[in-house]
Design goal:
By secondary structure, the chain is mainly alpha-helical. About 70% of the residues lie in helices and about 5% in strands.
Length: about 350
Amino acid sequence: MIRIERRIEANPWWTAGTLVAALAAGMLASALIVATAGADPLEAFRTLFFGAFGSQKAVMTTLIKSTPLILTGLATVIAFRGQIWSIGQEGQVFAGAMAGYLGSQVLAGLPPLLFFPGVILFGVAGGLLLGGACAILKTRFGVNEIVSTVMTNYLAIYLLSYLLAGGPWAEIGDGASYQQSVPLPVAEHLPLLFGTKLHFGVLLPFIAAICCAVMLDRTALGYEIKALGTNPVALGHKGTNIAKTIIAVMCISGGLAALAGVIELYGVGHRLKADNLIGLGYAGIIVGMIGGLRPLGTVLAGLLFGGLASGAVSMRVVSDIPASLVPAMQGIILLFVLCASVMARYKIVRGTAS
C-alpha cells in the first residue's frame, strides 16, 4: 500500500533540491510557451538574462524594480506565517502612496533629514491603518480577512481614482484631467546613491528583510506569529491575546506593503499615478510564496522577479514576444514552486495497511 505522510522535519537539502528542480521545470515550461509564440527560447532567455543582469545599468534597473516586490513579499511573509490570509497588499501599496503624497503637502518646506523620514512615516501609517482596520473586522466581528482585504483593495484603488480624476489632487491642463498628480519638486525626490541612478529606497527592502528575520526568529512576537500559524489553540492556552497578535501581524504587513508605495512615489514615479502601482501587491504575494515565506527567500525571489520585469523589455524588443508572456512565466514558476513546497513537506511511504 502506498500512502502520503507529512514529514516530521523537512530536510533542508531536499527542500533546496525541490526548489531548484521547480525553477528549472518552470523555465522549461516557459520555454515551450516562448516556442509556441514563434521565438527561439534560447535567444529569448539569453536576451532576458542580459537585459536583467548583463550591465551595470541593467542591474540597477533590476534593483529598482525588485524593491517594491521584496517589500510586498515581506508583507505576505508576515501575514501568511501566522496563517492570516491577507490579500490586501495591493490596496495597502495604494494607501501608502496616497498617505505619502499627503505627507508631502503637510511637511513641505522641511529640510531633507526631516522631510523624507516624515513622508515615509505618513505612508507606512496609511498601510498600517488599512491593515489594522481589516484586523479589527476579523477579531471583533468575525469577518474573514480574505473578504475584507480584497474589498479594501477596491476601496483604495477607487479612492485614488477619485482623487486624480478631477479630484483635489488631479493635474488639470486645458480643462482636462490626466489621472495623475502634479510632479513632485526635484527637492522631494529620494536622494541618489553614489552618483548613480539608484535611489536611497533600494536599501530599505534589505533592511526590512533583516528586521523581519530577526523579529520572526529572535523575538517573542515572532514566536507568537509562528505559533499562531501552527497551533493557535495552544497559543491561546499559553495566555497570549490572539486578537492583539492578529492586529499586530496585519498592521506590520500593511506597513511593509505601504512602504513599497511610498518608495515608488518618491523614488521612481515622482508623481501620484495608478499606473506606477498596479500589480505590485499581487506580485508580492507570488514573491513571498516562491520565497518559501522566509525573508531571505523573499529577497532572492524579489530579485528574480525584478530581473524578469527588467529583462522583459529587451526580450520583447529582440525576440518580438508578447508583453503578457512575463506574467504568464511568473504564474508558471509559482505553480511549480507550490508543487515543490508540497514535495518538501510530504513523503511517499510504502507499507501494509493497518
